[in-house]
Amino acid sequence: MPNGGSDCCGTCWFNSKNEGKPGYHNSNKKGIVLCTIRNIEISDPFYTYCINHPHHNPTKISVPLGGIYTGEDRKLLVNAPDNEETRLALVELLEKIEETPVNEYPAGRSLDEEIIVQIGLLLEKRAVPKLKQIVKFNPLANPVGDNPFNKNRIITVGLSIEVLAKLIGNEAMTDLERLSKIGLTTTNNYDPKQDKFAPIRYHVIRGLKNCDGKEAINLLIEGLKDPHQEIKAFSKDILEEKIGEEKTEELINDINKNSQKTPRNNWWGFWKQNK
To answer: pTM for this one?
Structure first.
C-alpha cells in the first residue's frame, strides 16, 4: 500500500487501467493512467487522490467532485470543476447527509466534508437550507454498529457553520453564538487533547471573518479568552483585520490583567506554562 493511503488513483475504478474495477490488479499494466471521469492524465497514480475514489464513494458517483490532491500531505494539484452539473451534484449530495455518519476510510477528508468544503468554495447558496440543518446535528453522533475509525459529526458541524457564515454572513449569528460556547468549561485543568469540540469553535471563529457588527466583534473577543491556543490566535488575527492591531492589543492586555486576578480563568498562565 502506498504511504499516502490506498484511496489513490492507482486503485480507483476510474483509473483507465483498472477497467471499471477497484484494486491493484492492473497496477503493472503498461501505458498511461487516465482518469476516465476527468479526462486527466495521472502521472503518479499511487500518490494522487480525489473524493470519487471507492473508499469514499461506494455508490460510484461519476460526476467529478472536489479537487485532485497529491503527495503524502495531499496538496491540491488540480482545482475542483465549477459547472452546473457539479454544483447540482454537490447540492443533491449535501441533502443526503444525515446526522448519523457512516464508516469511511479515514485518510483525507470524508465525502461529506469534501462536499461542504466545495460548496463553500463555489459560494453555492442553494445549499443554505441544508447547512442550517447540519449545524444543529449532534456533533457526537456515531455510526450504527462498530465504529473502528471513531467517526462522529464534529468536523461536519464545524465546516458547516464556517461555510454557512461565508454564505449568509450575520444571518448565521444565532448558530455562531451557540456553537462558540460548545465544550467550554470553567476548570483550570485544561487539556487540549481532551477538548473534543475545539474544531467546532475554530470553524466558528473562521466563519466570523464573514460577519460584521457588534455581535461578531464580541464573539471574537470571547475567542481571545478561549483556552485553545489556535482558536485564540485566529481570533486575534481576525480582530486585527476588523478593528486594528492597536485596539486588539489593548483588549488582549485587559484580558491578561483580568485573568491574572481570577485564577479560575487563568488561560494566560496556562499559555506561559505550555508554550
So the answer is: 0.88
